[in-house]
Specification:
The complex is a heterodimer of chains A (111) and B (113). Helix content of chain A is 0%, strand content 59%. Chain A contains no helices and eleven strands. Chain B is globular. Classes of the chains: A mainly beta (111), B mainly beta (113).
Chain lengths: 111, 113
């Protein structure tokens, strides 16, 4: 249960537009799905997360949606700003195990 | 409150040399982790520890060793450096295994030539 596919690998959007990043997992027992943002030269930072008993969670301009039937979850960023430019990682956890990470999406917001 | 501190930030090693990557946290977290990050490959777990004196292998442990003599420190040892170990290494900690809040250090960029 360590497979998580993340798409796209790179994404460029105009400032003010929305950005969507999607991850697909294989282990139906997965119960926790965080998203991390990694700025240049820094370690990943948790920006939002969702548990398997919730379909959607929102925090200002970012939201995460979870489709357990299809086994995918997505990060949505609205009204993008240049400071949103970073690498974003999805992750998942099964039970009380460690986190497994996606391969990352490099988001560039063009002013 | 410094969080997770990693040293050094950069290092160049010759093949066959040894080194220790240092990691310290001041949040009294029980769990600590070492990840490596390769381009396009995401983060792969090398080793983790559930508390002082206890360590366990992750996905990619070969070529590395760890120890956890105190709650605060979790050093990663490379005994015989190989070019395949060129990567960025991140240490992280959490209150419990799989905890919501993984706190990452700022990373160590290692190049083996």
């Amino acid at each position: 249960g360590e497979n998580v596919e993340q798409h796209p690998s790179t994404l460029s959007v105009q400032e003010g537009d929305s950005a969507v990043i999607k991850c697909t997992y294989s282990d139906s027992a997965s119960n926790y799905f965080p998203w991390y943002k990694q700025e240049l030269g820094k370690g990943p930072q948790l920006i939002i997360d969702i548990r398997s008993n919730v379909g959607e969670k929102k925090d200002q301009r970012i939201a995460v949606t979870l489709n357990k039937t299809a086994k995918h979850f997505s990060l949505h960023i609205t009204e993008t700003q240049p400071e949103d430019s970073a690498v974003y990682f999805c992750a998942y956890r099964t039970g009380a195990n460690n986190l497994f990470f996606g391969t990352g999406t490099r988001l560039t917001v063009i002013p | 409150n410094a969080g997770v501190t990693q040293t050094p930030k950069f290092r160049i090693l010759k093949i066959g040399q040894s080194m220790t990557l240092q990691c310290a946290q001041d949040m009294n977290h029980n769990y600590m982790y070492w990840y490596r990050q390769d381009p396009g490959m995401g983060l792969k777990l090398i080793y983790y520890s559930v508390g002082a004196g206890i360590t366990d292998k992750g996905e990619v442990p070969n070529g590395y060793n760890v120890s956890r003599s105190t709650t605060e420190d979790f050093p990663l040892r490379l005994e015989l450096a190989a070019p395949s170990q060129t990567s960025v290494y991140f240490c992280a900690s959490s209150y419990y295994q799989g905890s919501n809040g993984y706190t990452f250090g700022s990373g160590t960029r290692l190049t083996v030539v």
